[in-house]
Specification:
The chain is of the alpha+beta class and about 90 residues long. Helices cover about 30% and strands about 35% of the residues. It has a four-stranded antiparallel sheet, with no helix packed on it. A hairpin with a 5-residue loop joins strand 2 and strand 3.
């Protein structure tokens, strides 16, 4: 009886570890950006994040400055700010 319980627990533990690894190692789909989205001249996109009604864009300008742009779902940039290193 104890051996059967031990076997069930080992199988259950293997299933839980396998499911956790499968979930952690899954590659998320890249964000879908609107075709009308365009960055200011001289900026190149480094990262993008889509959430709710906003799209957050991290861009770098020609001088190496880092910018954060916030755009709506239509692709219109609503706010921009330059990030300064501490």
């Amino acid at each position: 009886m104890v051996s059967a319980l031990l076997g069930v627990m080992i199988v259950g533990l293997c299933i839980i570890v396998g499911l956790m690894a499968w979930r952690i190692l899954a590659t998320p789909a890249p964000p879908v950006l609107p075709a009308t989205l365009s960055l200011p001249p001289g900026h190149s996109l480094a990262e993008a994040s889509v959430g709710g009604q906003w799209i957050t864009l991290i861009a770098q300008d020609e001088m190496g400055g880092v910018w954060v742009h916030v755009a709506d779902r239509a692709g219109v940039i609503r706010a921009s700010t330059q990030v300064q290193a501490p």
